Amino acid sequence: MAAEEKEFGLGEGPAVKASVSLRAGNIRAVRERVGARGFSAYVDAAVERQIERDLLEEALQANEDASGPIPQTLRDEAADLFRSVKAAPELQEGAEWTGHEAG
């Protein structure tokens, strides 16, 4: 049985060659970021992240279907928290991580 025919979980199993078509601009951007040797690993990681996002979205939708929509006040609070974390100085490009320890 070939490796691609076996059942592996997300992020598991050996690398298997696959032919995909990508837009030229995306190919250029990936190569500029990781070089030719890191191309497959970069695309593989991107696919894995997208599947994880899809699964999360499905879980959120199932939760909303079972429990009703998330109140707008909680959505706003979550959006504010996300923006504040994203804007934290230690997360800005070029910033050095100071190692905030949990106490």
Largest beta-sheet characterization: none
Radius of gyration (Å): 20 Å
Quick one: how many beta strands? 0
Total number of helices: 3
For the terminal residues, how far apart are their CA atoms?
A: 51 Å
Q: What are the segments in which pLDDT stays under 50 over at least 5 consecutive residues? A: none
Q: Overall pLDDT, averaged? A: 87
Query: Which class best fits the helix and strand makeup?
Result: mainly alpha
Secondary structure: helix percent = 40-55%
Strand composition percent: under 5%
What is the 3D form? flat
Tell me the series of helices and strands, N- to C-terminal. Answer: HHH
Secondary-structure map with pairings?
Layout: H1 24-34, H2 39-67, H3 72-86
Structure description:
This protein has 103 residues and is mainly α. The protein has a domain at 21-91. It is 53% helix and 0% strand. The protein contains three helices and no strands. It has helices at 24-34, 39-67, 72-86. It is flat and about 45 Å long. The mean pLDDT is 87.
Offer a concise description of the structure:
The chain is built from 3 helices and no strands.
